């Protein structure tokens, strides 16, 4: 592919060459290898001068004298104690963007990672027989964007949806359904997702009432849990019905979220049952885990409870049952040794951080994680209401995810209808869905995953401010201009001088590749979102100050159309990496 060196990297290379000519001992300094750092000229000279015990302003002056000017750097001057103010040539900006636009693979010159590996990402983990609520939103949205970013850089990504499909509640459900078979009177696949989950919800509530009020039923239900864990064929068949019903629902919700969830990627807690006993045996034989009051536990010196006593990770309970830790540790073994993963990424609520800290440390002690295989929890914060408290209904119940998405689509459709000029009702409905779902995703992704964020639909679907609607309208505006241009095609003209607004837009557009690399390496979709918002803002300034189709010369019209086209392509690709669509018309 046609990888394009960014202007930031080119400037850095020129500075590094001049610096090593001035200060040869700096050649081995790590600062000179950080070619992705735009602020090298701001702090690099100061840091290197300090190491060399030289006057930073004098060193900077000597470096400037050796910098080659002309093709990339138009001017460079020293300011303050040794900062460098650098002006890139207009020609370099246009030529670099032209090279990105000419990339035959359509990647805008974004290179693949130098050493891509294999990442297993655990995200979007709903529970069987339970409706998805607002708490399930962040894992799905953040995880999907990280998948897109990693795959775009060339990483091999194995998706895993660790659904909750095992445990004592299924004994209760299965026993109830066995005694009331008529209450599930259809086959999986013959109902909608909503109907499927409505059936399961009704069954669960009925089974819970009977479990709480009937001691004999409670005994039978607990016996059924044992049958399930032992692999009784009839019990497993009943359990499979619940899983199939739930999947119908899961797929319907993820389809509404415009996310691809593939059935082979759904490997829940039950998928590791056959490994649990061996996982416990390996941990106990190696001394990583020890028996304590009948349970198999792992202890940590730095993890203690309020009473000052160590808090263990319980891998196997005293009654022989297995907890979440056994399943998670077995999953690590599978992902490392079967899928040959270099990285394990868990997009999981921050409230589970202690659990994963103990699980990862246990896996390291067992040798399953090491310097070549890392495990990271991408911990996310809570979705809050406008009042800053956890998002609830007026009745204090958890908000159903489908209700939230439907409301977002309704609000967005109203905005689209108000602005629509030549859209049919069908097109308004389609755009409303794309804008509404995009609004929900962007509000999440534009915030650092670790932070809580307020769910405010009024703000999310606003045409002003840092919203996906603002970015989508910027893209649609560009497409409108390109359509109005008719036979006039975008074309780069490096010989033309650029206005301040054109320069700012062009320089920012050139940073797309570096933003992709940084966002993927740090699992940070919010950095991509921030970059795209700034791009749209700079385009708005350009649009206001630089007439495109009424520019002074044919060459200037073509060049400004070219800037529009490149900006649109970056917006389209960048939004796709966030899992958000960019309608051609709005």
UniProtKB/TrEMBL annotation:
Catalysed reactions, semicolon-separated: tRNA(Arg) + L-arginine + ATP = L-arginyl-tRNA(Arg) + AMP + diphosphate
Lineage of the species this protein comes from: Bacteria, Bacillati, Actinomycetota, Actinomycetes, Kitasatosporales
Subunit annotation: Monomer.
Compartments, record wording: Cytoplasm
Protein name: Arginine--tRNA ligase
Gene name of the encoded protein: argS
UniProt keyword terms in alphabetical order: Aminoacyl-tRNA synthetase, ATP-binding, Cytoplasm, Ligase, Nucleotide-binding, Protein biosynthesis
A GO MF label: arginine-tRNA ligase activity
EC number(s) from the headed UniProt entry: 6.1.1.19
Main location class: cytoplasm
Residues in DALR anticodon binding domain copies: 471-586
